[in-house]
Amino acid sequence: MMTDQADQSRRNFLYVAAGGMGAVAAGATVVPFIGSMFPAADTLAAAKTEFDVATVEAGQLVVIQWQGKPVFVVNRTEEYLKEVDGHDAMLKDPNSEAIEAVTAEWMTPENRKYRSIKPEYLIVVASCTHLGCIPLFKPTAGRKEWGESVPEDWPGGWHCPCHGSLYDISARVINGSPAPHNLHVMPYKYLTDTKVVIG
After folding, report:
1. Which of these is catalytic: 87, 163, 181, 184?
2. Distance CA 122, CA 189 (A)
3. How many Å apart are CA 10 and CA 101, to the nearest integer?
4. What are the pLDDT tens digits along the chain (199 aa)?
5. In angstroms, rounded to a whole number, what is the distance separating the alpha carbons of residues 151 and 142?
6. Cα→Cα distances 78→25, 56, 82, Å
7. Residues 62, 73: contact at Cβ < 8 Å?
8. Where are the domains of the chain?
């Protein structure tokens, strides 16, 4: 009788020990698997880009990288900013309503036409919304040497060399362009008066 109780106790101990070892083994397998689902530190660092817009001279465009994508940063002069108004009828989405939900917190009625927190600094993804080509910066008003697809009253901005899409100086797409949307504005904010963080 004592032997049956001892056997039963030994059996219960072995069940508990085996169950505990199984739980430890499962944890040792699951924890690294779950950990592998989180982005690596270098990936998280690449998700945001800091840039000092004061390094861009008046009238200049520079291209920086954000999440592996090229990004245009333009310091628009007073002359360029004057080109923002007066051609809403030429635009597919003059108020930038179709794709700008990510920037809604700063996209007020006044800066919708500028598509930027500070009017002089435009920051947009440098990829045509048609098939992803990189548009060329052509800030001067309509120029016939760029082809028949460029209307004489085009106010200047970007011209996509692949399929002829046109954008104005606020990167808003012109009617008749193959591109369906304005160039994308990604989320960004100012850390200082001139330093922005994108992403």
Report:
1. 163
2. 12
3. 65
4. 556 666 677 776 666 667 667 666 666 665 565 555 555 555 555 589 999 999 999 999 999 999 989 999 999 999 999 999 989 999 999 888 876 555 556 777 777 889 999 999 999 999 999 998 999 998 877 565 555 567 777 888 999 999 989 999 999 999 999 999 999 998 899 999 999 999 8
5. 6
6. 67, 15, 6
7. yes
8. 1-38, 44-198
Residue by residue, DSSP assigns 133-152 as: ---EEE-SS--GGG-TTS-T
Cα 111 to Cα 117: distance, rounded to the nearest angstrom: 7
Beta bridge partners of 73: 62, 123
Half-sphere exposure of 115 (CA within 13 A, CB side): 32
C-alpha to C-alpha distance for 73 and 113, rounded to whole angstroms: 16
Whether 163 is a known active-site residue: answer yes
Q: 190: which 2 tokens?
A: 């100012």
Reading the block at residue 91, the tokens are 């635009």
Return the CATH number of 44-198, one of 3.40.640.10, 3.30.1490.190, 2.102.10.10, 2.60.120.200.
Answer: 2.102.10.10
What single letter denotes the amino acid at residue 17? A
